[in-house]
Amino acid sequence: MYETYFNLRVKPFELVPDPSFIFLSRAHKKAITYLDYGITERAGFILLTGDVGSGKTTLIRNLLNNHSDRIVLAKLFNTSVNSEQLLAMINDDFGLSTQGKDKISLLRDLNEFLVQQFASGKQPVLIIDEAQNLTAELLEEVRMLSNLETANSKLLQIILAGQPELRTILAAPELLQLRQRISINCNLGALSRAETERYIMHRLEVAGNVSAVKFEPETFDLIYHHSRGIPRLINIICDFLMLSAFAEETLQITPEMTREVIDDMDFENHFWAVTSPEGVHPKPTPQPEVLPFQQQSLHELLSAILSRIDSLETDIKQKPSIIADKKVSNDYLAKLHDSIESNRAYTDEHLRELGDKLADVVKKVERETAIVEQYEPAKTGIIRRLLGNNQ
For residues 361 and 377, what is the distance between their CA atoms, to the nearest angstrom? Predict the structure, then answer.
């Protein structure tokens, strides 16, 4: 719709995974190196996790494109099936007949197909997306498929892709054998603030015009704050920003325009709220983590020190002989002094440590607060004006 106006070859912020737009952040570079090694070495199971919209599918498609000359691919996206349906879907995607065949026949056909592909120098790869929806029983069925092998090589490469909770599922005791067969294990994290800016400019460049619009610096802060570095959400915000700039006949993306778009989209509620049995509650924004030193709070630590001093004083009261014997008394008091000094030094050290951490938290909160305070919803947003609704 707006490509001609901005002199772009294609839309830069489409949601469809497109390997040509792949942006290699630090986490993506690491993941693609691991995955490429796993495919090249036929490393059996590969595990790839990441939040929704983090770029897992784009990464996998880019990887497979680089090995397309020898890979035979099957993709499984519907994971709400039973074991026989799972096997039938795998065979069907490999192009095998499944009509009227039971599980034993399906397994035999799959094994014969894999042997044929291996003999011809091809490498069958099975991608199971949204694998966190598989039951433990189905994951065990998938593990059994890895038993299809020659004397020195796996016949089937399996990539398990899913959201971070997949790791929790795989930690179950009954899936120990599957965990032990996962040779390559990587997770895609969100983009940083700096990576978010580079990601946006990268997509504009790939689309044909890196100077299509000018983003004011604060705009990148707002986009990062509300997307939390998730590429899909960055795309959604930026696509609407391009549409808004087109409607306003401008090449400038301002913070004010960004706030209007985010408000019109009801972004926080629409993309970050989660539903619970009690109703809809917004997902809390991740806060900087303040770890208790040595697993103790300040109150607990000071209470422990006071308790220790009380205990030592009680010992003195309960042992009159200590007081009667001046030498013993001096020795005991010296030990008491050393103990108090030791605890005081220990406390001072960790109080300084806690102070440093709190200072870092305050700085981060101040930065976040500065962004939030600038976010004041407009009475009439750009998208509402585009749709002709000025209510």
Answer: 27
Could you give phi then psi for residue 67, rounded to 5 degrees?
-120, 20
Report, in this order, helix, strand and coil percent for the chain, each rounded to 5. 60, 10, 30
pLDDT for 147 beyond 90: no
Give the pLDDT score at 268.
Answer: 82
112-129 b/e with 16+ CB inside 10 Å = b? ebbeebbeeeebbbbbbb
Q: Where on the phi/psi map is residue 121: left (φ > 0), alpha (ψ -120 to 50), or beta?
A: left
Q: Whole-angstrom Cα distance, residue 112 to residue 97? A: 13
The proportion of the chain whose per-residue pLDDT surpasses 90, expressed as a percent, equals 37
Q: What is the mean pLDDT of residues 40-55?
A: 86
Q: How far apart are CA 282 and CA 267, in angstroms?
A: 11
Q: Name the pLDDT band for 279 (thresholds 50, 70, 90).
A: very low
Backbone angles phi, psi at 179, to 5 degrees: -55, -40
Other beta carbons less than 10 A from residue 246's beta carbon? 18
User: Given this model, what pLDDT does residue 317 score?
Assistant: 52
What per-residue string of b and e applies to 278-295 under the rule 16 or more CB within 10 Å gives b?
eeeeeeeeeeeeeeeeee
Return the SS3 of 46: strand
CA proximity to 48, closest of 158, 134, 156: 158
Q: Which two tokens stand for residue 179?
A: 């965990």
Q: What amino acid occupies position 368? A: E
Q: Is 46 exposed, middle or buried (0-12, 13-18, 19+ CB in 10 A)?
A: buried
Q: Are 243 and 261 in contact (CB under 8 A)?
A: no
User: Rounded to whole angstroms, what are the CA distances from 269 to 2, 53, 282, 383?
Assistant: 28, 17, 6, 17
Name the 3-class secondary structure at 174: helix
pLDDT digits (tens, 9 = 90+) for 73-132: 898 887 778 889 999 999 999 999 999 899 999 999 999 999 999 999 898 999 998 899
Beta strand residue intervals within the chain, DSSP E:
45-50, 71-76, 123-128, 157-162, 182-188, 214-215, 252-253, 273-276, 279-282
